[in-house]
């Protein structure tokens, strides 16, 4: 053991007399004596005009601590030259109309409300949106609006999809047949989504209007800022792991289906007989199809099966790969458990996986994906 006790690395932070801070990392001595001398050394740093830590007249300073206090003085001097002042780290004062912390803007939505007392219908107009958040890789979105009255989410309407715009003009009106006396307990939800043909549509934001706060004695036209939409609770379908590999010189795309886990139980006995279909899509159409072997009575199948597709370099950004996990049924129809899509037109994990593959040619890039519902109704794109 070194003379003077066990040495350990210590970081001390002190505020000097002028308000600035010093953060010091040194090798101190373990135990009460070491901490006492360290505290005295820090007390010195708090005084700007101090040249060296104060000495203790009650007990002699151990040799190790003599070196420590000398080191603290040198480090404090050097730290003062490179350590930014606290004022420099704080944001500059904001001017009129500016906020100190930058707010994450999702955009805003203009809508109209009116009630037809003769037919007993609430008329909801989705007029336009502006400044929407860009969720696509190209810095844009394909927005549409879903409208429903809580607590009933099943009866809902959707606008047309507007391609590649952050300032769409919808101009659509939807009617909800609701008795006027029941409107006070309803909440109108107008949720803006980014349409994605090959994966799950992503929520941009939503506007919630408690109908008890609206005076329907006359038509209402208003702008509202979009708020972050709460995450939808979805049934767990399972996860699938596969790798993507692309060789540009050969124009060859290889998909290796590795394994799946925690699949949804589809059979009466609480298990499944899963297999995977791999589709290559171009222009939204399935042009090639492959499938794995069937794994009996398991919710955690292991495949490690490879499939190759010819994809020229000039087409690699125009194709998508869709993997569907199905439960094999010898007597009836095979039922889909869930699916995953990857490609330049996909969103979220599907897009990231595709981008990683292109950034690492000739290397297999493996990734886990959560299965999505196999049948998801999407609104028709606007021409």
UniProtKB/TrEMBL annotation:
Keyword Cell division in record: no
Please give the InterPro entries that the UniProt record associates with this protein.
Answer: C2_dom, C2_domain_sf, Synaptotagmin
Q: Which cofactor does it need?
A: Ca(2+)
Membrane topology per the entry is: Single-pass membrane protein
Pfam families listed in its UniProt record:
C2
Indicate where this protein is primarily found: membrane
**Start and end residues of each C2 domain:** 105-224, 236-369
The entry lists its GO molecular-function terms as: calcium ion binding; calcium-dependent phospholipid binding; clathrin binding; phosphatidylserine binding; SNARE binding
Metal-binding listed as a keyword: yes
Reading the lineage from the top rank, the first entry is: Eukaryota
User: Where found in the cell?
Assistant: Cytoplasmic vesicle, Secretory vesicle, Synaptic vesicle membrane; Recycling endosome membrane
- Got a GO cellular component term for this one? synaptic vesicle membrane
A GO BP entry is: calcium ion-regulated exocytosis of neurotransmitter
> Keyword set for this entry?
Calcium, Cytoplasmic vesicle, Endosome, Membrane, Metal-binding, Repeat, Synapse, Transmembrane, Transmembrane helix
Protein family membership:
Belongs to the synaptotagmin family.
Query: What does the annotation say about its assembly with partners?
Result: Homodimer. Interacts with both alpha- and beta-tubulin.
What this protein is reported to do is described as: May be involved in Ca(2+)-dependent exocytosis of secretory vesicles through Ca(2+) and phospholipid binding to the C2 domain or may serve as Ca(2+) sensors in the process of vesicular trafficking and exocytosis. Regulates the Ca(2+)-dependent secretion of norepinephrine in PC12 cells. Required for export from the endocytic recycling compartment to the cell surface.
- Name assigned to this protein: Synaptotagmin-5
Q: What is the lineage of its organism?
A: Eukaryota, Metazoa, Chordata, Craniata, Vertebrata
């Amino acid at each position: 053991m070194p003379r003077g006790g066990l040495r350990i690395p210590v970081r001390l932070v002190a505020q000097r007399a002028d308000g600035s801070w010093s953060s010091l990392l040194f090798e101190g001595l373990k135990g009460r004596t070491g901490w006492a001398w360290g505290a005295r050394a820090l007390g010195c740093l708090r005084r700007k005009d101090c040249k060296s830590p104060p000495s203790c007249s009650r007990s002699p300073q151990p040799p190790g601590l003599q070196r420590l206090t000398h080191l603290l003085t040198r480090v404090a001097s050097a730290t003062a030259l490179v350590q930014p002042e606290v004022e420099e780290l704080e944001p500059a004062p904001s001017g009129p109309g500016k906020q100190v912390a930058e707010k994450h803007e999702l955009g805003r939505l203009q809508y109209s409300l009116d009630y037809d007392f003769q037919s007993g219908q609430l008329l909801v107009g989705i007029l336009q949106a502006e400044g929407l958040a860009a969720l696509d890789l190209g810095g844009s979105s394909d927005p549409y609006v879903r409208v429903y009255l809580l607590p009933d989410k099943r009866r809902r309407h959707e606008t047309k999809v507007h391609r590649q715009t952050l300032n769409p003009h919808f101009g659509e009106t939807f009617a909800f047949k609701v008795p006027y006396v029941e409107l006070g307990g309803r909440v109108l939800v107008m949720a803006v989504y980014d349409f994605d043909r090959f994966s799950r549509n992503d929520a941009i934001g939503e506007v919630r209007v408690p109908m008890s706060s609206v005076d329907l004695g006359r038509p209402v036209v208003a702008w509202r800022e979009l708020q972050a939409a709460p995450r939808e609770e979805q049934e767990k379908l399972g996860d699938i792991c596969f790798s993507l590999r692309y060789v540009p010189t050969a124009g060859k795309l290889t998909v290796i289906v590795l394994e799946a886990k925690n699949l949804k139980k589809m059979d009466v006995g609480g298990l499944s007989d899963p297999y995977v279909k791999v589709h290559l899509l171009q222009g939204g159409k399935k042009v090639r199809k492959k499938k794995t072997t069937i794994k009996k009575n398991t919710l955690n199948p292991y495949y490690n099966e490879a499939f190759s597709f010819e994809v020229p370099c000039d087409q690699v950004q125009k194709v998508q790969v869709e993997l569907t996990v199905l439960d094999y049924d010898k007597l009836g129809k095979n039922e889909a458990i869930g699916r995953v899509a990857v490609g330049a037109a996909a969103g979220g994990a599907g897009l990231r996986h595709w981008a990683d593959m292109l950034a690492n040619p000739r290397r297999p890039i493996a990734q886990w994906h959560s299965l999505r519902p196999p049948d998801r109704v999407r609104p028709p794109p606007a021409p």
